[in-house]
C-alpha cells in the first residue's frame, strides 16, 4: 500500500497563496517557489510517500502566453521537480512524481472534467510532447499523468511513453460517474490501453467524487489500482464557496475501504489536506 499526497493547491492556499490565476499553483514557480517546497514537506510529514509536483498547469504554452520565453518556461518546469526533490531529501525518503496535467488544464475552462477538446489524438500528442520530454529528463522518479478526461488524450500519452522507453508513469482519469471517464468512454476501455504496458506502474482515477470510487476500482484490470479522489465537496457558484466540507476522519475511513476494495495507491486530490492524508495512514494502521 502506497499513500499519495493530497491537494497541492488546496494546501498552498492554506499557507497563504493566492491562486486566482489561470496558471493556478504553477504561478508560484514564478512568484514564491519556497512555499511549494514547504507544501510538499508538509505532506511528507503527514505520511505521504509521494510528492506530486506543481507542474500540472505548468506547460510551455501557458508560460509563453504569460510572456516568458520557451527556455524560461522549461526552467520553471524543471524547478517544479527540484522543489519536490528538495522536500523529499529534507524528509529523508519518498518518491517524486512529475505531474502531467491534461490539455484541459491549459484551456482553463473546465475541460479536464468533460474531455471537450478542440484537438484530436495527433494534436494532443504534439501539444504534450515538449513538456513530456522535459519532465522525463528532469530526474523525477516517474510521471503522473493525471485528471485525464479523454480517451484520445490517453492514447496520445501512450504514444509519448513509447518515445521515452526508460520512463515510468501512472495514468489516472477523471470520471463523471461510477463507470465512465469524463468524455463518456467506459473506464474499463480506457484503462485497458495501459494494461500491457510495462512502463505504467498503476492505473486509476483522481479528482472524482468519493462516492464513485469503489465502483470504479472494479473496472480497472491488468495493473495495480490507484485512487485519489477529491473531497466530495460541491462548488456554489452563486455564492462562490465550497459546500459540504469532507471530514478528514471520514475520508480516512473511506480510504481504508478503497484499499480493501483493491486499490494499492490511495491519496487525495482537490480540497484534501495534510490532515486527510494523516487520517488515511491512521485508518490503515487501525485496519
Give a description of the structure:
This protein has 287 residues and is α/β, with parallel strands linked by helices. The protein has one domain (2-286): TIM Barrel (Alpha-Beta Barrel), CATH 3.20.20. Helix content is 43%, strand content 15%. It has helices at 8-14, 28-31, 33-46, 60-65, 70-91, 103-107, 121-136, 151-163, 187-192, 213-217, 248-260, 274-286; strands spanning 2-3, 50-52, 95-100, 142-148, 169-173, 200-206, 225-228, 234-236, 241-243, 263-266. An 8-stranded parallel β-sheet has the order 1-10-7-6-5-4-3-2. It has a two-stranded antiparallel sheet with strand order 8-9. Helix 7 crosses helix 8.
Strand order, main sheet: write it out: 1-10-7-6-5-4-3-2
| Strand fraction | 15-25%
Instruction: Compute the number of structural domains.
Output: 1
Helix content: 40-55%
Mean pLDDT: 95
Q: What is the fold named in CATH at topology level?
A: TIM Barrel
Amino acid at each position: 500500500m502506497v499513500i499519495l499526497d493530497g491537494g497541492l493547491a488546496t494546501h498552498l492556499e492554506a499557507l497563504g497563496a493566492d491562486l486566482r490565476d489561470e496558471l493556478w499553483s504553477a504561478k508560484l514557480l514564478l512568484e514564491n517557489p519556497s512555499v511549494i517546497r514547504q507544501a510538499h514537506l508538509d505532506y511528507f510529514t503527514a505520511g505521504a510517500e509521494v510528492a506530486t509536483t506543481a507542474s500540472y498547469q505548468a506547460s510551455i504554452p501557458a508560460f509563453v502566453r504569460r510572456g516568458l520565453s520557451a527556455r524560461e518556461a522549461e526552467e520553471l518546469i524543471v524547478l517544479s521537480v527540484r522543489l519536490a526533490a528538495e522536500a523529499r531529501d529534507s524528509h529523508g525518503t519518498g518518491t517524486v512524481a512529475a505531474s502531467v496535467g491534461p490539455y484541459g488544464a491549459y484551456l482553463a475552462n473546465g475541460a479536464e472534467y468533460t474531455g471537450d477538446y478542440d484537438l484530436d489524438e495527433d494534436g494532443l500528442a504534439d501539444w504534450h510532447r515538449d513538456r513530456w520530454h522535459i519532465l522525463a529528463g528532469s530526474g523525477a522518479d516517474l510521471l503522473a499523468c493525471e485528471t485525464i478526461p479523454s480517451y484520445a488524450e490517453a492514447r496520445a500519452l501512450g504514444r509519448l511513453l513509447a518515445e521515452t522507453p526508460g520512463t515510468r508513469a501512472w495514468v489516472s482519469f477523471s470520471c463523471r460517474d461510477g463507470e465512465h471517464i469524463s468524455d463518456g468512454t467506459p473506464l474499463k476501455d480506457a484503462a485497458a490501453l495501459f494494461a500491457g504496458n510495462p512502463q505504467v506502474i498503476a492505473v486509476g482515477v483522481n479528482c472524482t467524487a468519493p462516492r464513485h470510487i469503489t465502483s470504479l476500482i472494479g473496472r480497472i484490470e491488468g495493473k495495480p489500482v490507484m485512487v485519489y479522489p477529491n473531497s466530495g465537496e460541491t462548488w456554489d457558484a452563486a455564492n462562490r464557496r465550497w459546500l459540504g466540507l469532507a471530514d478528514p476522519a471520514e475520508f480516512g475511513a473511506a480510504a481504508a475501504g478503497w484499499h480493501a476494495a483493491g486499490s494499492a495507491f490511495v491519496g487525495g486530490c482537490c480540497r484534501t489536506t495534510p490532515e486527510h492524508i494523516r487520517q488515511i495512514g491512521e485508518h490503515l494502521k487501525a485496519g
